[in-house]
Amino acid sequence: MGRSNSSIRYYSGSVRGSESAADKTTSTIKGNSFDDSLADSRVKAVFSRWSACMKAHGYHLADPLKAADLPSMSAPEPTSAEIAQAETDVACKGKVNVVGVWFAVESAYQKSEIKENREKMADIKKQRVVEAADIQRLLRSLSAARKIPTQ
Q1: Where is this region: Disordered (predicted)?
Q2: Contact (CB, 8 A) for 16 and 143
Q3: Are 25 and 120 in contact (CB under 8 A)?
Q4: pLDDT per residue over 27-69, tens digit each?
Q5: What local confidence, expressed as pLDDT, does residue 20 receive?
């Protein structure tokens, strides 16, 4: 099998290589920022307001992460009660701005870690540019071979 075929399988996700240093760095930043955001007083406060909103509508959930723990997640169809809970979840998230607060807090943690890892992140960016160029080359090669128009 030639380089093109193995690269195509790698980039399509059908073949996974070992986790690169770049993958480890970005995974660590994502994981740390998620964990740090959950421990942050601002996120805890907005989760508490969300929980109070849910409770006012008859649902007793500690935080939004628990809202998806529904039996229908493995069933073909959700029940009408689960749909009602999901609608209340979305309404409460909007009312207390869960997404806005959590996004702002988690993003701040990510930006801080990215700044601390500036050199690694610059190397990752260079690596991604090379990978993107490789993918474009492979797509052009495939398109030419199969006469598929490219964008």
Answers
A1: 1-30
A2: no
A3: yes
A4: 999 999 999 999 999 999 999 999 999 999 999 999 999 888 8
A5: 78
CA-to-CA distance for 54 and 60, rounded, in angstroms?
7
DSSP 20: P
Q: Which of 53, 29, 41 lies closest to 107 in space, CA to CA?
A: 29
Q: Which residue has the tokens 């690269």?
A: 7
Spatial CB neighbours of 19, under 8 Å, sequence gap ≥ 6: 27
CA torsion sign, 5 to 11 to 12 to 16?
Answer: positive
Provide the angle, in degrees to the nearest 10, between the axes of the packed helices 118-146 and 21-39.
Answer: 120
Length of the chain: 151
* This prediction's pTM: 0.72
- Residue pair 63/44 in contact by the 8 Å Cβ criterion: no
